[in-house]
Structure formats: structure tokens, C-alpha cells
Amino acid sequence: MIVRIARREFRALFATPLPWLFLALGQFLLAWLFLTLVEQYQTSYQPLLVKLDAGLGATDLVAVPFLADPRLLMLLLLAAALLAMRLLAEERRQQTLPLLLAAPVSATEIVLGKYLGALALGLLLVALWGGLPLTLLLGTGLDLGRLLAALLGLALLVASLLAFALWVSALASQPAAAAAATFGGGLLLMLLQRDGGQGILAYLGLLSHYERFLRGEVAVAALAFHGVLITGFLALTVRRLDALRVQA
Amino acid sequence: MAEETLLQARELCRRYGDRTALENLDLSVRRGEIVGLLGPNGAGKSTTLRILSGTLPPHRGTVTVAGADLFAAPRQARRRLGYLPEIPPVYPEMTVAAYLRYCGELRGLRRQALSRALERALERCRLGSVRQRLIGNLSKGYVQRIGLAQAVLHEPEVLILDEPTVGLDPLQTREFRTLIRELGEDRGIVFSSHILPEIRALCDRVLILRDGRTLFSGPVTAADSRRFRLRCAHAPDAAQLAALPGVTALEPAADGSLLLTLADEAAAAQVQQAVLAAGWMLREWGPAHDGLEQLLVTLVHGEPA
User: Which tens digit of pLDDT belongs to each residue from A10-29?
Assistant: First the structure.
């Protein structure tokens, strides 16, 4: 049942021009950014590296800076906000939610179906964007282990943001409000570490964990952090849906 | 079989903030029975139907569908329910066939059972010619039929229809009523309407609601049994007629006949005899078919009939 709901969700997302436009424009912008980084590396960094005989390479100076670029993260946040508009908020606005609520499926199944449908799109983004640094393999060697860790970090970042987006989408009956709240809330989640620097706030920040992945560290603590975050937001969404139909 | 109770609701209450939307509603629907909810806008019709369909929780009360408690065994109960909300829950970007297939999957139908159910629903709701069209491009009449098709797809024993004929043209309305009557033969149906003739044409029993309270619950015909239409060849003397034993009220109808309200059904024979004896020549005698309207006016608007 979860798979069927997810499949419909994924197809429905692509039934409108918005995701196509987003994929095309996002890919164009990020390819531009990536090429700028490659050019910078070729003209400025490479001669310097040769002169200094430093142990740095394309992974450190092109691939990882690309994946850490705020513009890429902003696009990701925008994607999450746009998805929050769809998912549950749009079903409520279109008044199609009763179809799911009256069906013999549990709220958990509905939520997981919706989440996996959105996650499929999120992972498609990671694959398309993460594919750009991998093209460097055509001309040079890369630290593949580190790059894969970084991509895993990006995928977990997407998965966490989307779980948050789904919860916001369940709370808001206005799609635009869902988008705005996801953008603002997502930004907060990502940036928590910036000002606090350390302590509990820094630990809760998505980016502080992402930065460790970018360094090539895959820590169990970080995996658990994302697991708890995703499960937590999904559980809140299930509760919210249950409140719509079985608890007064 | 005709006595089997398919849907039973007891003491349903629902509040929105401070406002009580529904108070102590009791309802039971047997197999083969069509029950109508009648009342002005905001009377609690949609709230009742949403609770019965399991899409809105009541603050108090129980609902059982074919023996399964809607809140304790929701999966089992929901399988036997078909629900058409006021606004059909359709996805405009899907084709009719794909949408109905998805609805079938949600209700647990698979493979051949799903294909069979799909064909049956398409045929029953006369949607065969538009099966590959996008729902967003279809007219209101079709969308309403798609809504009904999804509700009956899994052959539920209980159908809940919220104002199913709103926005349809007269021909479509008639088609829809025929369809509902057919469906009602071996199911239990609850539907809401604020159109009187519709309730009279379709329902066996009616519940009249106002401000969330049940004002009347009983057979549609019960409301009619004391109202008669009388036409005579020679115009009778109104005062003399009104004075006959058993006649409690008398009023002229728009078409020249007289509408009589009698004390009870037994009085009918006495009045007929008296009319004949008075030599007014009885031409027409029959039920006035406006009892429901009278009842509604009295109950809802608080005016005397």
C-alpha cells in the first residue's frame, strides 16, 4: 500500500511543469557553478599546487566546495519548500484528502507513502547534482570514498529536510504557508550551528553534521541523528493525520 | 435480510470550538434502505456524513459499519464503506481509469478483482467513453459520476453520499437518482440534500436536522399520511367542509383543488362519505405529497403548517 501511494505521489509531482522547470533550471545553474569552480582550479589553484607540492587535489578544491556551496543548499531548501506545497497541503486545499482518510489504510501508511514519493524526487536531485563532480573522473583522479561520504551526507540532509517539509505540509492548509514555513524552518535547522558555535544548538544543526560528511567522516552518531530526526518528523505527521480522523 | 442493520450511529456529538455542530444524533440504516438527511445549510448534514465516513472524529458517540466499530476496527469498517464527499476527491491530473485504479488499490483490490471492479464501475456510472481522459478536462457532471464510481468501486455495503446531485443539470440529476435507487437495492445508503423532491423520490426514511439537532426521524410517508388533496365537480362550501369531523385544517391549493389536513388516517373514509353525501361530486382524492414540506417548514422555520 505504501508503495502504491508513493508511486502515485511521485507521478503526480511530475504531472505539473514545476518539477521539470526546477530540475532544468537547477541543473543549469549548478552546472554553471561547477564549471566556475573547475575553471578557478585550472587557472589559479593548479599552478600553485604544483609549485608548493601540496597534497590537495580536485576533490578538495572542486568537488567538496561544490557540494558545500550555499547556492546548492539554497536550491535544495527551495525544492523542499516547493514539495511542502504539494504533499498534504495541496490535498487539503483541493479537498482530496478524504479519499485517503476514508480508505482502509492507516495514517502511518499514508505518511510513509507520501514521504517515499517525495524522497524519490529528492534523491533524483542528489543523483543529478552529485553526478556533476563525478564527471571529473573523466580527466583526473578523485578521492571516491570522501566523495561518496559527502553524497551520503547530502542524501541524508535531503531526507531530513523532506521529513520536516511533510510535517509542515500536514499542519498548513494553505500551500503557500507550507512553503514559507518549510523555507524558514529549514533554514533555521540548517544554520543552527552558525552562531552558537558549539553545544547543543550546534549539535542540532543539520549543517554541522553535513560538514563532517564533507570531510569524509561517516559517523554512527551522525547517521543516528538523521534517523531520529526523520522518524521524529514522520511520527509527528502521523499524529497530525490521526487527529484529522480518529481523535477528537 | 431486509432487516439487517448495516450502519448504526449512537449519540454522535461534535463541536467546532464553542459551537455545537451536532448533538446526540442517532441513526440506523438497514440493508435495502435509503435514508435522507434534510435540513438548511449549516444544519450539520455534512458533519454527520463526515463522521459516518470516518474522516472526522466525533467528540462523543459510536459508529458501527456492518458490525465493525469505525473507531476500534477502522480498517475492517472502512472496507465496507463508500464515501462521496460534497466535493468529489478527484485528482485533476490523472485519467479516469488511472484514478479509479488507484482508488481500488487503496481499498485493497488487486489484479483481476481490481480490473473487474474497474470495468463494473465504469459501466455502472457510464464513464466508459471518457476512461482515458484527464479528469481536470471533464465537466462537473462527469466529475460527480467519477466521485460516485470511486465510492461504489469496492462494492461497499454502506454508501455515504454528500449532496450527490448538486450542480448537475436536470437530465443528469434524473440519471443520478436512478443510479442511486439501483445501488440502494442491496445496500444501505445515507445521503444529504436540501432538495425536497429528491428526498421524497429516493428515501425510505428521513432525518430532519437544524443546528445539529435531530428534529424529526421517521419514514418519509409518515409525514404524508395526514395530508390529502380533494377536488370536486361542484365547489364545496369551505366552512361546511372545515366543520366536518376529522378535518383539522383546510386550504386552497394553487391548482384549484383543496388541501386537507386530517386528524388521523381513519378520518379519510368519513370525510369522503361526507363529501359524497353533500352532493359536491368527488372527482379526485389522494395523498397531497406535501407532508414533508409542511413538516420541514414547521420544524425548521418554526411556522405552523
Answer: 999 998 899 999 999 999 99
B62 at interface of A, judged by CB pairs closer than 8 A: no
User: 3.40.50.2000, 3.40.50.720, 3.40.50.300, 1.10.3110.10: which CATH number matches B5-222?
Assistant: 3.40.50.300
- Chain region(s) in chain B for CATH 3.30.70: 225-301
> Which residues from B are below 8 Å from A248, CB to CB?
14, 57-60
Q: How many domains does chain A have?
A: 1
Start-end ranges of CATH 3.40.50.300 in chain B? 5-222
**pLDDT higher than 70, residue B224:** no
Give the domain extent around A219.
2-245
Of B57, B76, B106, the CB nearest to A245: B57
Q: Are strands B205-210 and B33-38 parallel, antiparallel or unpaired?
A: parallel
Closest CA–CA distance from residue A120 to any residue of chain B (Å): 19
Distance CA(B8)–CA(B28), nearest Å, equals 4
Q: In the CATH scheme, what is the code of domain B225-301?
A: 3.30.70
Summary mean pLDDT of chain A: 89
* Per-residue pLDDT reduced to its tens digit, A168-180: 999 988 899 999 9
Nearest chain A CA: its distance from B129 CA (Å)? 23
**Facing B107 at nearest CB: one of A97, A101, A104:** A104
B28-54, pLDDT tens digit by residue?
999 999 999 988 888 889 999 999 999
Secondary structure (3-state) at B54 = coil
pTM: 0.86
| Cα–Cα distance, B60 to B48 (Å, whole number) | 12
Element (H, E) at B60: strand B60-65
Answer whether A125's CB lies under 8 Å from A26's CB. Answer: yes
Residue with cell 520536516: A164
Question: A100 CB near a chain B CB, below 8 Å?
Answer: yes
pLDDT for B302 equals: 65
For chain A positions 31-70, those within 8 Å of chain B (CB to CB) are none
The complex's ipTM works out to 0.86
Looking at every residue in chain B, the average pLDDT score rounds to: 86
**CB-CB contact of B174 with B168 (8 Å):** no
